[in-house]
User: Which sequence fits this backbone?
């Protein structure tokens, strides 16, 4: 794991002002005690790496003191801005969850900008919320744990489950997901399963995925109106919240030129903490659906976890 050494801990009584180094800080459910940024929101704690500060010092031609960019915690050992929302930073006592990378710069409206002349926080500082509180001081260490998203792909096909032909649509979803993860810089573990067009088996695997807190569930097959097409009506009763707009857009977008696309009964929604998407069984349809789904996937995750990331 990547270790972060704590170089300084800092607080300020007002937002938008330089923070002063203190001997230690107390992290609570609302952030840093006695700090202006504490509260019931997603940016309770700010962190900035000395690696970022050093770059600004070279440009500014002067020494930058810890806390001068209003960071609560000054670190060394890892490029913080390479992290992603929902990653975690922790030790045996403390656990912080990353909620935002960078922020909007207020320019002349910020005391830091007026005093220092610029600010590195909007690009390279990160923000976190406290999952587990405790005391933190200079010299302590934290370890970085990137979030590993879990995905399950369920292919529904009587013939593929019996080995009569190869599952190509499930394989294609896996390829697209892994490419998306690589391009986004996130980690994802994919489990692919082939089952018959059986409502009982589908329900079993969905409920099991929910118990295991799988982040993304994709089904492929069974969205038509044939006698063995049972996916949408099996999935819908399990959803806590349906997200109809995604599938409606896909049907309209492709149905304008190919009316048969309008016949898909695909649904999307949230089951517990799992996002579920039911896709048709062809590789071509998978390509079309995944292209649209991935446009909102990250934002849906952030909404789900209460992160105001724009």
Assistant:
């Amino acid at each position: 794991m990547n270790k972060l050494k704590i170089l300084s801990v800092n607080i300020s009584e007002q937002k938008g002002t330089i923070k002063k180094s203190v001997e230690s800080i107390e992290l609570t459910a609302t952030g840093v005690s006695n700090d202006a940024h504490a509260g019931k929101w997603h940016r309770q704690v700010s962190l900035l790496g000395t690696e970022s500060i050093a770059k600004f010092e070279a440009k500014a031609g002067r020494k930058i003191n810890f806390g001068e960019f209003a960071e609560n915690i000054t670190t060394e050992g890892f490029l913080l801005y390479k992290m992603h929302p929902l990653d975690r930073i922790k030790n045996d006592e403390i656990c912080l969850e990353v909620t935002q990378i960078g922020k909007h710069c207020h320019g002349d409206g910020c005391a830091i900008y007026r005093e220092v002349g610029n600010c590195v926080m909007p690009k390279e500082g990160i923000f976190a919320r406290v999952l587990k509180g405790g005391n933190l001081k200079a010299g302590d260490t934290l370890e970085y744990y990137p979030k590993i998203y879990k995905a399950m792909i369920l292919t529904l096909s009587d013939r593929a489950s019996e080995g009569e032909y190869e599952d190509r649509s499930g394989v294609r979803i896996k390829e697209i997901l892994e490419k998306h993860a690589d391009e986004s810089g996130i980690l994802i573990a994919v489990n692919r399963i082939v089952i018959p067009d059986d409502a009982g088996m589908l329900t079993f695997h969905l409920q099991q995925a929910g118990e295991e807190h799988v982040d993304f569930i994709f089904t492929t097959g069974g969205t038509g109106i044939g006698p063995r097409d049972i996916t949408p009506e099996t999935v819908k009763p399990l959803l806590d919240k349906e997200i109809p707009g995604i599938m409606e857009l896909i049907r309209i977008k492709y149905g304008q030129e190919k009316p048969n696309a309008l016949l898909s009964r695909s649904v999307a929604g949230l089951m517990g903490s799992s996002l579920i998407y039911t896709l048709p069984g062809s590789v071509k349809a998978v390509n079309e659906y995944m292209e649209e789904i991935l446009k909102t996937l990250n934002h849906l995750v952030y909404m789900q976890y209460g992160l105001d990331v724009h």
Notes: The chain has two domains: 2-145, 148-304. The two ends are 29 Å apart (CA to CA). The mean pLDDT is 92.
